[in-house]
Amino acid sequence: AVVSTQSTGKCEILHWVPISKNAHEQDFCSVNPKFVAVVAEQIGGGAFFVLKTERIGGIEPSSKISKHNGAVYDIKWSPFNDNLIGSASDDGLVRLWNITDERGVEANHAPVQTLQGHGKRVGGLLWHPSAENILASSSYDNTIRLWNAETAQEVSQLSSFTNQITDISFTMDGSQIGSTCKDKKLRIFDAHNGTIAMEGPGHENMKVSRLRMLKDGNILTAGFSSTAARCLRLYDPRNLTKVVNELAIDSATGSLFPYYDPDLNLVYLAGKGDASIKFFELSEGSVFYLNQYNSNNAQRGLGMMPKRGLDSSINEIARAYKLDVAKKMVNVIPLKVPRQSKSFAEDLYPDTAGYEPALTNQQFIDGRTHHPNLPGSLIFRELPLLARDSLQLMRRKHVRKNRKWLMELITQKSLLL
Question: Does residue 146 surpass a pLDDT of 50?
Answer without folding.
Answer: yes
